[in-house]
Specification:
Length: 325
């Protein structure tokens, strides 16, 4: 016997789409993913390409989950805050036409990362991978810091750490102060002769990811290399700056760390915890409960049960009605 209604949760990012269909009572019961990222163009995130990928996945998932209809959907997307105008304008109606969904929450991926990590409680989340963004809420408003990309910000991110490590390698190659022979050797092991590095790096469209690929090498050198250790301490200070910029200043807010960069472990996490203790002495650092897809599931479930209490914000989290039956 099928459960008559359910929810849809989506996490859209640089590596593709992750999609869940479930019911309020049973949770997330079926999931699929696509390795093709949604295109962006002159209008930002392309709602047509989004739906082309989503529709067949959702139909298969509804059958797998035994769900007759979908009452609510939560879509978290990288770039929603700055590139999401077309998605916000067209996606709710498209989901209504295809699936009869009446309520749709559209969220920046930073928001779904927050909800996945902390749920609906006040605090701050630092989401760090190739890039970096911090987001916080006092449950009345959202605040964000950084997330400006590898040329203008993302301070402390994987790309930032990797670039700083490669700069130290090139300083050692030149014989300038501040260089690291260990990072030079590691750079040449990964990329070949460093004199050819600019030609390999600058023309690449995936330059942030290439820079970030060197970040684990910086962490691996940190134990015996003061230059590498200083880079990670500087990254920790940048992260703590961003967390302090968005964290509520009253009560006992929680702070969580999420994202692949923290898999580097103690060389980064220990100095970051020290910096957070200095900058946010009343906050409590807690483990992240889940990831951005878990956040989308939580938002969709709350939306389906009229329990969504997170603050609304046109760019960060907006709830709109579709035009399904």
């Amino acid at each position: 016997m099928t459960d008559p209604s359910g929810f849809l949760a989506v996490d859209s990012g640089g590596s593709g789409l992750r999609v869940v269909v479930g019911t309020v009572g049973r949770g997330a019961t079926a999931r699929r993913e696509s390795r093709e990222p949604v295109r962006t163009g002159d209008r930002g995130i392309d709602p047509g390409h989004f739906m082309e990928q989503l529709v067949p996945m959702v139909r298969a998932l509804m059958a797998e989950a035994g769900v007759d209809r979908l009452d609510a959907a939560a879509v978290g997307a990288a770039g929603m805050a700055s590139l999401g105008d077309a998605l916000r304008a067209e996606l709710p109606d498209a989901l209504g036409r295809e699936f009869g969904i009446g309520r749709v929450a559209l969220a920046a991926d930073a928001v779904t990362a927050y909800v996945g990590a902390l749920g609906s409680r006040p605090g701050a989340v630092v989401a760090a991978g190739t890039g970096l963004i911090a987001i916080g809420t006092d449950l009345a408003n959202w605040r964000r810091a950084d997330g400006w990309g590898h040329l203008l910000g993302d301070c402390g991110s994987g790309a930032w750490i990797g670039r700083a490590g490669l700069e130290a390698a090139l300083r050692a190659y030149d014989g300038r102060p501040g260089g690291s022979a260990g990072l030079l050797a590691s750079a040449e092991e990964l990329f070949g002769p460093v004199r050819s590095l600019p030609g390999k790096l600058y023309p690449r469209p995936d330059r942030p990811a290439v820079l970030a690929s060197f970040a684990p090498r910086v962490a691996a050198c940190a134990d015996g290399d003061p230059v590498a250790a200083d880079i990670l301490r500087a990254a920790a200070r940048h992260m703590a700056d961003s967390a302090a910029a968005v964290c509520p200043t009253t009560g006992e807010p929680q702070v969580a760390l999420t994202g692949g960069l923290f898999k580097m472990g103690d060389p980064l996490v220990v100095p970051l915890q020290e910096e957070l203790a200095k900058r946010l002495p009343t906050a409590r650092t807690v483990p992240a409960a889940g990831d951005p897809l878990d956040g989308s599931v939580r938002i969709a479930t709350d939306l389906a049960t009229d329990a969504l209490t997170l603050p609304s914000d046109e760019a960060m989290l907006c709830v709109v009605n579709g035009k399904g039956d």
